[in-house]
Amino acid sequence: MTDEKLDQILKQALAPEISDKEIQVHKRRKGDMKKFGKMGKVVAAAVTAAIIGIGGLGYFHPVLAAKIPLIGKIFEKLEDDITYSGDYSNRGTVLTREDPAGSRNTSDYSISDQGITLTASEVFCDGYSMFLTVTVESEQADFTHIPEHYTGLNTADDRTAAGFYIGGTWSVDGDTPNQLANTFEGKVIDSHTFAGMLKVNFAEKLPGNGTFRLNVNGLGYDDNRMTDREEISASHWTDGSWKLALPFEVNETDVKTIKLDEKKGDITLENVVISPYQVIVHTATPGKQRELTADRREKLLSKDPDMTDAQMYEILGWSYEPCYTTVFNQDGEMLYPDAEIAGQARFAVQGKEINTLYIYIFNHPDDQIQMETQGMNGSAASRAVIFKEIPVR
Question: Which residues contact 57 (CB under 8 A, 6 or more apart)?
Fold first, then answer.
């Protein structure tokens, strides 16, 4: 049997069966799980044990999974299911490879602590974000109870992924460390192996190549057997130290920046960046006049890990006026929104054709919610502070 056939069987075995029950997660850190489904909801998935018969013999899918090389091919495994989905082939740099026997070509990008091994597999950087694939491995764990969440705008999209919490800091080329407010998003491969992607956003575009440093001080995951909101979030959490230094190259292939500098009222639409996996809308608002430094943010989070940007600005006595942005393409398809901060809104392309963008910027969240519900032809469109039609191609 070929590896391709085995991979097909594995995908079928791991296909989730989404239940109708939704679990509202009590967040370990507010914002960590916002990307896990629309409006911050995590949808539980039943992770079923699949028994596959081959040649008259029965195999439990984790055993089968172990026979398929994973390290060095995680983008390929996840690219259809994660929020920032798309074709990653021939874009990322492979850091670690694995042969069919499970042997790896290097240990430079693998670190173990507290019985958990974190291995960096591939890296891609478009200059605005870092996309890093990893495996999390633990012989003492049982990852099969990690719930899955929808990664498309509609449940009918039938796209789901699991999530793994991560705590610590990241930096580039010796710059001041930034607090991690991200998660690994991916798939449970077997009881002891999770494969995921970490996406880290940069405040400013990186000029070129460098070293991305990841300093992880905690890892955890939810458990769908726990139904109490206070218990489910990162109910399996381990403190430790996992430090990785990863070389990367900025790949600007198919990355386009369109300068606009259109101002209406207190909002300025500065520019729009289109990359293979994301659309970034840069704006200037009164709240962007003073930026939170990484050091100041870290100090505030040390007092209250759940503190939001708006709360930080309030404590400091600064104004905070984020925009509320919605983006559609030429076919009227809304792009999947990530958490929006002052000065920056990001949207997942998810394989959609981007020939023209229609950008609506509001100064009230209710208008944005109505816009997302009604679509481009709804009444909320007329209340946009800024509307811009942008030809991309």
Answer: none
